[in-house]
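Sample 1 of the test manifest.
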Amino acid sequence: MSALTTAAPGAPVVELDLAELRRDPYPAYAELRRTAPLAWVPSVGRHLLTRYDDIVHAEKLPEVFSSREEGSLLLRTVGPNMLREDDPDHRRLRAAAEPPTRPRQVRDQWAAAFERTAHKLLDRIAGRGEGDLIRDFAEPLVAANLALVLGLRNASAADIADWSRAMMDGNSNYADDPDIWLRAERATRAIEEAVAEMAEVTRREPDGSVISSMVHAADPVALAEIQNNVKVIIGGGVNEPRDVFGVGAWALLQRPDALDRALKDPSAWKRVFEETARWISPIGMYPRQLTQDYEIAGVTLPAGSRVALVIASGNRDESVFERADEFDLDRPHRPHLAFGGGPHFCMGAWVARHEVSAIAWPLVFSRLKGLRLDDGATASDSGSAAGSLDGWVFRGLTSLDVTWQATA
Amino acid sequence: MPTVIFQLPDGTERKVIAASGTVLMQAAVSGGVEGIVAECGGNASCATCHVYVDSEQAELVGPPNDVEDEMLDFTAAERRPTSRLSCQIHLSDALDGLVVHVPEEQV
């Protein structure tokens, strides 16, 4: 099967400006859902699938909507990995890597260390009275947590964050910028070395980490497979929890009633997490490629067609979520699509839920008294007008400037 | 071809005829049973296909496996003694007439 790089016969062609999509994709998605729920978008080189029901349908058919995509930038950046594999290969790798990310492991093995790291970061900034909650807190926190869960004791939080950024830039290097490729290659080489070293250590002394789990998997995993999959996890594992943290904190700082509720009833943090992930999904879309001819959203896609499942759009589908553009903790429970679905359901979901909703938000809002947004950091209710909200493949706040009462 | 009955939170019930050898979650999804979300597609990683097996049939269905047991501690609705993930219940003719209760919340 070769990848088709043109519109399927009968598919509407819709021109979308990538810069505008990065700034605010939601108006374009609303229009697509209304008029062209499957549309070929030349600037993206894919068909965008934008309605909730169609996305769920596609996710439940991994044998048709394959994760193996020819010419994938992710494959170029990190090499073969489970995100771009279908079962049974995907399943073998996932089963080897997954045990340390299951919820009971998160609670029993990692949570105490996550909490210590969060306190340390807050100790460092509490006396300042002002800061950027992304740069000074969320990013170093999730990067340190990721190093711990992966078992990269030989890497710092700053290494993890830098590697992640370099690979994410490579993964979206549609302009083929050679400097971006160079930085991505340097990062992936550094990860390979770090993983090789820790694989050797954990072969002798298992430590419950992802690397250790893969080294000791019942179904054997080669070192190169461990290296590539750790790269993928580092690529996604920083920005996603960081962005949910940032967007959720920003949403609450503009909604004192919702914040007050979460502070009085800690069980509400869980709702804050799920609603934040629905409202502005950290991952906006992911690619699939058709293994056979298949009709969806009124168009028959030939085998080889490229499709983007636009989960950020599905999460704003007004036929599923009333007043979908609003952040609302009281909306009726409907499952959002932010973690993806089917066999590729986000492996880091339980880690992210715990580190953000049980640790990061409660500690930030209880320790930094009088926390408020800096002037200029406010935005409209739609979550679309903030200067530092950016991205459509991945979307989050690039900074969150706040002030609070400095404590000694 | 076992028939399974889903008791929904609103008091209504849905009967689904399933093929032997499939799992209960698949029967629910194919039968369009509301409230069985099954985000992870049957890989016991999301805990969104939680059901309560009718207490009189719990023994017939058996206990959860280890991974499932872990996930059941993290379901959105409370865990009860007969809680199971429907993706881990393999249907056979022996389970014809199985009754399960769908909880209020999955996510």
